Predict the structure.
Amino acid sequence: MVLEGYRARLQPYIQRLGRPFYGWTPSQLSATALALAVAAGILAVAVRWTTPLLFLPVAVLIFFAGLFDVLDGEVARATHRTSVRGDLLDHVIDRYADLAIVLGIAASGFANPILALLALASLLLTSYMGTQAQAVGQGRLYGGLLSRADRLVVLALAAFLEFDWSLPWPWAPSAPWERFQLYGIGFTVLDVAMLYFVIAGQWTAIARALRVYRALPPGT
């Protein structure tokens, strides 16, 4: 998944969605995205003591957190309020949003916590390599197998599937760890998402690092 490559095609729709929010400041939109992400993380934790049906609002909150994350940059550009300070704030908020969602999923009981922590480390490394390229004068990098748009879509979809397969269908399992079995190892949809983040995240981080390294002049 490389959703960043479709940004140009989606730009007219993003502009249309952003128009009702021109009265908002980009910081307010970023703060709203963070609040939605934190709420998603808290609800994911609550699943542990309540019901996996809560994964439906978790998926919805992640979706809208991603939407507001897109709109803050769009509104900033459309209203000529882009700034270095705003760019920094956006990146900081994005990282805390990632932290809230993944830690919530790790504590939900529906994802292996060690795998989730490895996934979080991979996501943070991916973002770090993108901003580090900018720090050494090579411009912000968004390419690779795992952009931020990709990770939010995967998280929202995985949370929705956990909700769907927790409904009382005939095939519904009796416990999270009985979802799927492969060579005697039980795993959930969220485990698969976390594993994807580990693999795709490390691949993207290393690819970005190599791209920047090769672009730099020798001896720097």
Notes: Helices lie at 7-18, 26-46, 55-78, 84-106, 113-135, 148-164, 189-215. The chain has one domain: 3-214. The chain has a mean pLDDT of 85.
